[in-house]
TrEMBL record:
It comes from Ornithinimicrobium humiphilum. It comes from the Bacteria. SUPFAM superfamilies: Winged helix' DNA-binding domain (SSF46785). Keywords: DNA-binding, Transcription, Transcription regulation. This is DNA-binding transcriptional regulator YhcF (GntR family). The keyword Transferase does not apply.
Amino acid sequence: MRFSIDPLSGEPPFAQLRQQVLDRVGDGTLAPGDRLPPVRNLATELGIAANTVARAYRELEADGVLEGRGRTGTFVRATVTDGRIALAAASARAAAERYAETTRSLGLSPEQALAVVRQALEA
């Protein structure tokens, strides 16, 4: 399993890795119970800091997509139903982060950005 980081992307490396894991869980390339590469190994392979990989893994664990098993490693969560819900929540969170970054760059206040979201949800 290969992951890659595009240094020219506007997305931070942890977000790129996080999205690649989500995509692979979503398309079945990574199945429940599959073990992900150890943080240090993947960081070395990608040429990024170990903390960057650890952050992506932590966020995916918080979203319920991955589970850390201590020294045994990090695995795709085994519960498929929870995994689908978690995958949707994680994808929504990633979209929200991109939206927040975009609205900040446009100079919108948080209140204005939320108003735009409310309008879109009601449409």
